[in-house]
């Protein structure tokens, strides 16, 4: 978690705990803290999942490039082509996964 998110999470925990009456049992304090942290932890898990999916996608793309290089001359090594395509592919996958997660439709062409 970056520093800004840590600060936001701590503020959320302090706010939730601050709503409890003085002398509240430790179990209530713990529940309040957990409830305040839950959205931050869920968000972190989504980001980690997205990174993993993108990394897996890049591996898959490289293997396809290797297969295609048997028939096509790319004018460069498949590794060099992968490195050239890496940034735009990562950016597009990031967009696609974010849009998919939000439930919105994409403007990408259909892949039938």
Report on this model:
The chain has helices at residues 3-18, 26-68, 78-102. The chain is mostly helical and 112 residues long. It is rod-shaped, with a radius of gyration of 22 Å. The chain starts with a helix and ends in a 10-residue tail after the last helix. The model is unreliable at 108-112 (pLDDT under 50).
Q: Can you tag this structure with a few keywords?
A:
disordered C terminus, rod-shaped, 112 residues, 0% strand, mainly alpha
Q: How would you summarize the topology of this molecule?
A:
Elements: H1 3-18, H2 26-68, H3 78-102
In short:
By secondary structure, this protein is mainly alpha-helical.
Distance between the termini: 38 Å
The average pLDDT is 87
Largest sheet: none
Radius of gyration (CA) equals 22 Å
Count of runs of 4 or more consecutive helical residues: 3
- H/E element string? HHH
Shape: rod-shaped
Number of strands: 0
Report helical residue fraction: over 70%
Please mark out the parts with pLDDT under 50 across 5 or more consecutive residues, or reply none: 108-112
Beta-strand percentage range: under 5%
Structural class: mainly alpha
């Amino acid at each position: 978690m970056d520093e800004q998110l840590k600060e936001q999470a701590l503020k959320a925990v302090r706010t939730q705990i601050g709503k409890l009456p003085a002398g509240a049992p430790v179990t209530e304090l713990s529940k309040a803290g957990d409830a305040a942290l839950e959205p931050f932890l869920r968000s972190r898990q989504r980001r980690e999942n997205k990174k993993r999916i993108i990394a897996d996608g890049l591996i898959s793309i490289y293997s396809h490039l290797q297969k295609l290089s048997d028939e096509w001359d790319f004018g460069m090594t498949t590794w060099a082509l992968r490195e050239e395509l890496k940034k735009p592919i990562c950016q597009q996958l990031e967009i696609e996964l974010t849009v998919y997660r939000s439930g919105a439709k994409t403007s990408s062409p259909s892949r039938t």
